[in-house]
Amino acid sequence: MSPPRGLAAVTGATGFLGQHVVRALADAGFEVRILARREPASPFWADLEPQVVRGDLADEPALARLCEGADVVVHVAGQIGGGKRDLDRVNIEGSRSVATAVRATSARLLQISSLAAREPQLSAYASSKRSGEEVARTILGNRVTVIRPPAVYGPGDRETLRLFKLAASGFFLPVLDPRARTALIHVEDAARQIAAQVVSTSSNIITLCDDHPEGYEWREIMQTAADAFGRRPRLVRIPPAALYAMALIDEFANNWRRKASVLTFGKVNELTHLDWGVRPNERAASTLTPKYDLPSGFRQTIEWYRSQGWL
Q1: Residue ranges in 76-154 assigned as alpha helix (H)
Q2: Which terminus has fewer CB within 10 Å in the chain: N or C?
Q3: CATH number at residue 60
Q4: What is the pLDDT of residues 60-98, one digit of tens each?
Q5: 307 vs 309: CA distance, rounded Å
């Protein structure tokens, strides 16, 4: 067995993207150490035995142990939903804690952010991801590479599962403004591209993408999902005003239930933004050829959902 290419420490290793990042790093020859609150288990690396440091982003001694001796720290952990307080606590203060722990070592940091950070004015989530980037760069300077994935789908994702359930059984599928473009990437391709950046010395902001960096029109996304099930539903355009009304109703209903809203005004701002394509100057100088295009990626994801009883 060849010696490892180095030690990669990972936060958020048990999350959707993080599980695949661990797999990709191991496949690329790295020894992997992860931060986890409890003994981890993942269907994507059941054959692996990463080093485990018990703790979370608020545990300074655990973060120190995670980063000690690492060649690179891949900070995947992040908050997607919830209120501004929770988003800021995880995405800003969590990034501050990780960057501070990395500063005490000789490791580099790969800060996994989001394409949403390009437009921080749109939502509390986008703002928190942008601020998390800025905090890490302030603390570590050119020892940080910021990586912004676009919308990520694939095995293990419960967010896009809703889309596939609708495509599998719905008589119609909603589509948004035909001028809008949304970049997508399969999670395995995203993880491989992240692993490829581990050996890079770039301190740039890099955006991941599949073979359509310009993004997809909403009709193409929805029709591709329906095609994967052999269905031909009616595609119905939903105006932004209807989405904002739904967000208002969702907010009232969830305030009464004391639950976090799923569809917030910020999420509607993100959904209705016209340009989520990846620009040429945002891509890495050398990008791995994606394994999946949109049709094959959707089919593979659906097959996994079915194998797990999710569909």
Answers
A1: 84-87, 94-103, 124-140
A2: N
A3: 3.40.50.720
A4: 999 999 999 999 999 999 999 888 999 999 999 999 999
A5: 6
